[in-house]
Structures are given as structure tokens and as C-alpha cells.
Amino acid sequence: MAPPLYRPHAPALAATHADLENHASAQREVLVGTPGSVVVRRNATGTAFYARQFYDHDGVKRDRYIAGPVGSPAADALAESWRTRIAEANDLLVSVRILVREGYHAMAPKPFAAVAALASSGLFAAGALLIGTHAFAAIVNRLGIRASAFPTEDIDIARPEALALASVPEGGFLGALRQSGIDFVPIPEFDPRTPSTRFKEAGRSRLHVDLLVPAEGREVTIRAVPELDAHATALPYLRYLLAQSQPGIVLSRHGVIAVRTPLPERLALHKLLVSQLRTGRNEKSLKDLRQATVLVAALCDLFPGSLTEAFAALPATALKHVRKSLAQAMPSLEAHPAALEEMAPLVAAKA
Question: What is the rounded CA–CA span in Å between residue 5 and residue 333?
Fold first, then answer.
């Protein structure tokens, strides 16, 4: 018999995660790097000023100017407010460490810095979603279950519709990414006349960020995203995934970020779909299928009926692909009888 695909975390851990989510949603800005400390520095003329000293995503010690000169009421007040922010961030990290030790998923410092920069630019508050494997990790954490990790350096950011931003971030989407302190550059397309929709850290790094939007039809195209002064890859069936979303958080040893993710049942069915649609990428197809199967097992146990409802909303052209993936997933669900019972009619149903 196949082993269980997940196990539940203790209720106390789920409560700690919920508390972190409440704190993260109230953050005005996500600190990039470790929380650090407030230090006093002097410039070339000997004038003392306040700086935040911290370690960045590469473990390099950095100083970032806060205010000056030391002794002025405005600078002293700002320095004190930074001490308070840093103390609060360190308090949150105590809870993060507890969760990560118990099997909650945490993002590596470098992708965390990139997502933190986008959050501080207001993208998630304005309607952008984190999707892909990092969304899967955030959803698994929020469900209060422990499941196998799927490490990745790919970050997928989706825009369901025009984002409610007050203004274009300085430098657009690329400029927002560079606020992380990482030297992001556009990845050139095969046709140099085609605008880039993907960004990577300069050099040999594997850190990638994709900007995605729903396609109007069934063809992959490129669409302008004027509120980000950028372009995005338009994908078929993405509209289904993004139609409903929920709050979530990303954990890291550097902090916590409030994000938005798709509903878990829509992510599960969308991953079943794309696992069939990928061509020549067998490893990614298997990963999609595995992640989807974990979510199917957990949702049928914890929220029976949610997948059946989400299945009914699938586009007609997606049904045969999802059924094929579900049929492949059924042997892995042997340890989850509720999932087998709920999924069997969906696999057997005729299109």
C-alpha cells in the first residue's frame, strides 16, 4: 500500500502559523535581509548618523542609511522606530524557527529577498499572486500539513487583471525586483524584437522570475502590463487558476512576507492539467503531478467537496487532461480513502 502523502502538524503549530500570518499582513514593508541592528556611523566630515546593519541574501554584512545627524530629534525618533521594527522582526523569527524545525517549508534567502521587494512595492496588496512551487509550499503550510519539499529557484508571479497600484514602481517590474539588492536582468527572447517576460540574476545564477497573465485564447502570447512597465507571458488556462485567491505567507530565516496564492483546490486541478500539457519536460510534469496529488489527498480529508466544486468550474477543454492525470494519481492515494472516494466519480465521468 502506498504511504500517506502528508501528515498533519500539531494544532499549536497551526495556531503559530496563523499568528504569523496576522502579523505579516500588518507589515508596512518587508525588511530585505536579516533584521539586523541600528548602529552609528560617521561620514567623511565626522558627522554621526544612524544606519541599519544587516546580512543580505548572500550573507554579506551591509549598512543602510537611516537618518542623521545623531542627536537631532527627527533622526533619533526615526532610529528608535527602526529599533522597534527590528525587535518585532526578531520576535517573529522565533516563531519561524519553531515552525521550520517542525517541517514547515521555508524559502531560501535569495528568492525571499526578491519576493520581499515585490511585496514592499505593493504588488500582492494590489492583486498579484504568487503561484508555482513557492505557492504550493505556502498553501501546504497554511493547511497545517507536512509534505515533501520541492526546492526550486523559479519564482512565478501572476497578474489576474490590472493591478490596483497608485503608480508604476520606480523602474517598473525590473526596478522593483532590483530593490532586493539582487542584480536582476531581463532574459532575452529568441526574437530580439520580442520584449522579455522573464528575469534572472546576472551571471550563472539559476534564480529566475517569470511574470505571467491569463491568455485570451488557447495560444501562448506576450501581453503588455502597463502598470508595471513590463510584459508578461500569457498562458492558457491561467485564468481558471487565478479566478479565486486567498492570503498566505512565505517563511524564511530572514522573515515573513504576506502574499496571495490561488485557492488550494484550483492549484491542485491546475497542476493536474499542466502536468499533461507540458511537452519535453518530464521532470516538471512529474513534480506537478506529485504536488497536485498531495493537495488532492489533503483537501479531500480536510475540506471534502471542495475539489468536486472546483472541478465543475474547469473549462470543458481541460477536463480530459485533468481526468488523465487523476487516473495516474489514484494509486498514490491508497492511504487516503476519502480522496479515492471523491475522485473516483470525477475520473469515471464522461466529458
Answer: 8
The residue behind cell 537618518 is: 67
Grid cell listed for 300: 479531500
CA-to-CA distance for 271 and 252, rounded, in angstroms?
Answer: 25
CA angle 189, 159, 201 (to 5 degrees): 45
Residue 223 DSSP SS3: strand
Cα–Cα distance for residue pair 252/84, rounded to 1 Å:
20
- DSSP E strands in the chain: the ranges are 7-8, 37-42, 48-55, 61-67, 129-131, 145-146, 154-158, 184-186, 198-201, 208-214, 221-225, 230-235, 245-252, 255-262
* pLDDT, mean of each 10-residue run, the chain (351 residues): 91 96 88 95 95 96 96 97 94 96 96 96 96 96 91 92 94 96 92 91 93 92 96 96 97 96 98 86 87 97 97 95 95 95 88 50
Kindly report the pTM of this predicted structure: 0.94
Residue 225 CB neighbours (<10 A): 20
Separation CA 89–CA 219 (nearest Å): 44
> Is the preceding peptide bond at 109 cis, omega within 30 degrees of 0?
no
* 218 phi and psi angles, rounded to 5 deg: -110, 10
The grid cell for 98 is 519553531
- Number of other residues whose CB lies within 10 A of the CB of residue 288: 25
Take residue 97 and report the three cell numbers written for it: 524557527
Residue 94 sits at φ, ψ, to 5 deg, of -60, -45
Compute the distance between CA of residue 261 and CA of residue 246 in angstroms, rounded to an integer: 6
In this predicted structure, what is the pLDDT of residue 1?
72
| 30, three cell numbers | 518587508
| pLDDT at 350 (0 to 100) | 63
